[in-house]
Amino acid sequence: MFNKEAKILIIGGGFAGARVTQDLAKAGFNHVNLVDKKAYFEVTYATLRSLGQPDLGKRSRLPYETFIKGTFHQGDVTTLTHNAALLADGSKLEFDMAVIASGSSYSTFPIAKSQNAMQLAQRETELTHARQQLNDAKTILIVGGGIVGVELAGEIADHFPEKTVTLVHGSDRVLPELKPKASQLADKQLSALGVKIQYNTRLSPNDDRYQNADLVYHCVGGTPNTSMMKVHFNDQLDQNGRIKVDAQFRVEGTQHLFALGDCANTPEGKLGYLADKQASALAKNIIAMANYKTPKDYKLNPMVSLVPVGRHQGFVQLPFAVTTLKLMVNMKQKDLFIKKQWKNLNAN
């Protein structure tokens, strides 16, 4: 049984990890420690648009030390044991309870989630360089027609209409994770912006289309960040490398480890707003356990997705329909949910 004096370690400070940290600290837990290899939080909803609107991007990032209510420790967790996280620098963070919210990585597309910029100034430099590369390019090739690829194509075509943008996708429709109507709308809206879409196409670096492009973006291959589990908890990883959890986010075969967001195998969409919902639910359960109450199973959410296609178009997938209703699309278009995210985290 845990109480508010328990040492709680949160591994990963993305949408899920930062929210759990804030909610537990606000509830009066006295030893909440967030560890992340980066020194800053980033509202990644806004990252792609920041290629054309740098000021928006700057508003989407804050150092953890300016708003985290618990303790923040910058470090890279390499191995998780039953009671400690071992860091790359040789240090160790002990815990009574751990929440693994290590997210996912896009090694081929660091614009979306940086692999090397651990300090805020480094991230600004990285994105400035990316914008310069984009400004200098005339022909753009985007590989992968998932949500990231579609949004990126829309942002570039909208902000830089003089550039030639080609989106290549390996199957017969973009956005295969969404409903067919969403795919049709994405095709129509991207085409209206001048984006050329090539379906059922897989390119190698030796392909002429690849060689002739001034700039190539690979928007494929998201991977859960779970390598820390392999030494002591390899059996708790599924075939996709995600952590096996129950309906209360408890890691299979344990009582004091929890996992959520992109790194966990909870069967719902791997989206930021859902990670936030999971974090809120887990924090409530931990608070309940500290008060000797029974935790509740998490109620899965249907796939809802709001996809902007440039600054003036987009669509929303709801459980019962896909719509281009401006009132709904503009909910995200206004500021890419930056203010909403800072409110969720009690950050200014």
Would you kindly provide a written description of the structure presented here, covering whatever features stand out?
By secondary structure, the chain is of the alpha/beta class. The protein is globular, with a radius of gyration of 21 Å. The chain has a five-stranded parallel sheet with strand order 5-2-1-9-16, covered by helices on one side. It has a four-stranded parallel sheet with strand order 13-12-11-14. The chain is built from nine helices and 19 strands. It has a domain of 142 residues: FAD/NAD(P)-binding domain. Helix 4 links the parallel strand 11 and strand 12.
List low-pLDDT spans. none
> What would you report as the Rg, rounded to the nearest angstrom?
21 Å
- Spell the H/E element sequence: EHEEHEEEEEEEHEHEHEHEEEHEEEHH
Give the CATH superfamily of the domain at 8-37 and 75-106 and 222-301.
FAD/NAD(P)-binding domain
| Main β-sheet, spatial strand arrangement | 5-2-1-9-16
GO molecular function, one term: flavin adenine dinucleotide binding
Keywords: FAD, Flavoprotein, Oxidoreductase
Family: Belongs to the FAD-dependent oxidoreductase family.
Protein name: FAD/NAD(P)-binding domain-containing protein
